[in-house]
Sequence to fold (131 residues):
Amino acid sequence: MKGTAVMVMLGVLFVFVLGLGVRSIFLAIGTFFEDRTMRKDCAELSRMTEERNEEKRCHDVERLDNGCEHLWGAMIGAFPADACRLCGLEKECPPGECDHIWRIEMAGVPFGYCETCNLRYVKTNLAQPWS
Ligand SMILES: [Zn+2]
Ligand SMILES: [Zn+2]
Fold:
């Protein structure tokens, strides 16, 4: 009689533990799939970013490979700081239609302009103490 009671208690305990076990297994499976989906999304995202960077970098390398030993850095404020002083190309492909070729016009007040689209370079962060 005593043995049966112990058996029943053990049985109840067993079912209880089993229930917990199954629950945690389901939770683990759920977490696993969630993790996998999230990891996949992350991987996808970083792959896309990498691809985009790669694309841009290749593009920049190609366009800068024009035989010029680029000299970056503006000599005067009228010239874009990230454009080459020798060939006028910008270090990075500028946004918009035109891949500007910057030239400097020294007549009067010097100003930079694009040879291709005639855009005039305006230094946006220029301090204007006289105004
Ligand atoms: Zn150059
Ligand atoms: Zn241009």
